[in-house]
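Any chance you could type out some protein's one-letter sequence along with its backbone structure tokens so I can compare the two?
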Amino acid sequence: MRIFSFIKQGKERVGIEKDSKRLDLYEGYRLKYGTDSAPDFLTDMKKLISLGVPALNVVSEIQTSWPKEAELTEVDWLPPVTNPDKVLCPAVNYKAHGQEAGTPPPAKPYFFTKFPSSLIGNEKPIVKPRVTEKLDWEVELGVIIGKSCKYVRPDQAMNCVFGFTVFNDVSVRDWQFPEGWPKVLNPYGQNWVWGKAMDRTTPVGPIIVTKDEIRDPSSLSMWLKVNGEKEQEGNTKDLVFSVQELVSWASMGITLSPGDIISTGTPPGVGFAKNKYLKAGDVVEAHVEGIGTLRNKVEQE
């Protein structure tokens, strides 16, 4: 399935995509069953994910019937999960990116976090904070957790995954890196909070593709373009730690919850390696094979 979150008449809804067409699942349910309302999991992606198979069976029935009156001609996109409890991101998880950054891969995943307030949906503006001149891009595969889990073994990790999305780990480099970095080392390290979690800087989406439709998350091509010019290109074959290993490590002592997002790192071609940064008016497109293209325009705060 290819499902997404959107706004309709000021309220959150869940939709489904098939053969380039999109359907409002809430309205589709009403039309299919002749009711005045629909289950609340069709207005909250996290609830849908939490309910698992029973909710997906309902979605499948609506998709099969496909009431044409519920088709969407326009979509006001939201992040696929608007209210995740946790957003966990690994640093330097592509071998080639580590080489361009001059940073060897860690012995185990090094996670930083983002806040839900940093997330935006497809076609929504990336807000360039007024305090930065070095706004950077990072295309990534995003993993959506499907059920609560803790201390998960790698060979069981995919049982905890709901699906995958596109994640653009936009970074505020002049805040992330202390002055003089890396020649002058700050005893407290990089400033991950301001460098990664400023408001409305992290695009996610457009959709979630359920895991049954992604044959191998360790063999997906991806690219990122700025104003039509390709800046990044890579493949998840270059991951230092696989999706399964990342989920396992993230669950060590931390309970992962339905709707949580784990990104997987970025391939080479980021802006700071080229001394090239985003400015207002730039259009950023991030693409992952089998999922789609996440498109956002940069807007000055």
Observations:
- The chain has a mean pLDDT of 95.
- The radius of gyration is 19 Å.
